[in-house]
Amino acid sequence: MFDGKPENHAPALIVASPGRIRDGLRTMLRAIPRIETVFQASDGPAALQIIAERHPVLVLLDSKLANNDIQSVSRQIKAESPHTRCIILVDDARQKWMAKVADADSVLAIGCPAGEFFAAVEQLLPQLEPV
Questions:
Q1: What is the 3-state secondary structure (H, E, C) of the chain?
Q2: What is the pLDDT of residue 127?
Q3: Per residue in 79-106, pLDDT tens?
């Protein structure tokens, strides 16, 4: 929900363990003018609470937190907030396959080039509409 804010500003959520990956993702998201606020969660239950309360339009999900259950976590996010776009970050081909089966809006390798990351985010942002 955008609560009267301009359509071109979008809150985002990072679901990842505290550390360098989460910090780097936050820094990159904050560099995107359309990203208004970046929330952070360390696990699925905390992420679902933020989604219910803050309605982020973009979620970055570290597949390591999903405990090999990427499908379930992604489906919970989509059930709670169907308008939310989900980028799943993966380490290997198996996780990539699981993310695609989970209907992720985008799948990126952890450590991918910054240009690839920004292109994926920007590709999803024009699709976003206020709820």
A1: CCCCCCCCCEEEEEECCCCHHHHHHHHHHHCCCCEEEEEEECCHHHHHHHHHHHCCCEEEEEHHHHCCCHHHHHHHHHHHCCCCEEEEEECCHHHHHHHHHCCCCEEEECCCCHHHHHHHHHHHHHHCCCC
A2: 59
A3: 888 889 999 999 989 888 888 888 889 9
Here the tokens at position 93 are: 């081909």
Q: Which residue carries 């933020």 as its tokens?
A: 50
Locate tokens 């209907």: which residue?
103
Residue 15 structure tokens:
């679901």
